[in-house]
Amino acid sequence: MEAGFLLRRLQRGESLGMPHSRPMPTVGPGCHELRIVDGAVSWRLMYHVAPSAIVMLAVFPKKKAATPAAVIGECRKRLALFQRVMRTGKGSRNAR
């Protein structure tokens, strides 16, 4: 429920800061990590704020202090695909 509430705030144009969200410049400009605690699990939702949308890049349980390099790499790929589609209007259904 908390994730939906925070995402709605983002969609309305609000900027969220700590403890709910933090910038993730290692992923790319306009990228952030939404922080949700659900019981014993800390969830992270990587997102990008675009002019026309909030783009979800990844959702994962956070188990260590550092964000896994594999997650950062996958988010970079997804962000690049989103940006290419927005720029050209063309994308690949099978691109990952």
Reconstruct the topology from this structure.
Layout: H1 2-11, E1 21-23, E2 31-38, E3 41-50, E4 53-62, H2 69-88
Question: Could you explain the architecture of this structure?
Answer:
The chain has one domain. The model has no long low-confidence stretch (mean pLDDT 91). The chain has 2 helices and 4 strands, in the order H-E-E-E-E-H. Strand 1 and strand 2 (31-38) form a beta hairpin. The protein is α+β, with helices and mostly antiparallel strands and 96 residues long. It has helices spanning 2-11, 69-88, and strands at 21-23, 31-38, 41-50, 53-62. A 4-stranded antiparallel sheet has the order 1-2-3-4, with helices on both faces.
Give the gist of this structure.
The chain is α+β, with helices and mostly antiparallel strands and 96 residues long. The chain is built from two helices and four strands; from the N terminus they run αββββα.
Mean pLDDT over all positions:
91
Number of strands: 4
| Helix percentage | 25-40%
**How many strands, which pairing sense, and closed or not: the largest β-sheet?**
4 strands, antiparallel
Helix vs. strand class: alpha+beta
Distance between the termini: 28 Å
Question: What strand line-up does the widest sheet have?
Answer: 1-2-3-4
Radius of gyration: 14 Å
- Low-confidence region ranges: none
Strand content: 25-35%
Silhouette: globular
Secondary-structure element series: HEEEEH
Number of helices: 2
What is the total number of structural domains? 1
Attribute tags:
96 residues; alpha+beta; four-stranded antiparallel sheet; 2 helices; globular
